[in-house]
Amino acid sequence: MLQINMREAKAHLSALVDNATKGTPFVIAKSGKPMVTVLPCADAQKRIGFLKGKITVPDDFDRMGDSETAASFQSME
Asked: What's the angle, vertex CA 76, arms to CA 70 and CA 77, rounded to 5?
């Protein structure tokens, strides 16, 4: 497993975390002594499409509430 010193981890944290979410965990060390292991969360890679097949979106979804919205503006006149 990749071991990175604290200073280098601070300088490259964003890239290191991106790599960890893609399957390359790493250890942050201080003075050569391992301190923490950075691993991706179990669902870090499963965001897109995670509800596929579990819900349905109505065909008129983009028009839902139109009459209520129009009515609320008419009451302001």
From this structure: 100
Q: Which residue's entry shows tokens 């009459």?
A: 67
The residue count of the chain comes to 77
Kindly tell me if the per-residue pLDDT of 47 is higher than 70. Answer: no
- Domains, the chain, in order of start with CATH, read 2-74 (3.40.1620.10)
Residue 28 · residue 36 · CB < 8 Å: yes
End-to-end CA distance of the chain: 67
Enter the pTM of the model.
Answer: 0.54
Phi, psi values for residue 25, rounded to 5°: -65, 165
- The pairing of strands 2-5 and 26-30 is parallel
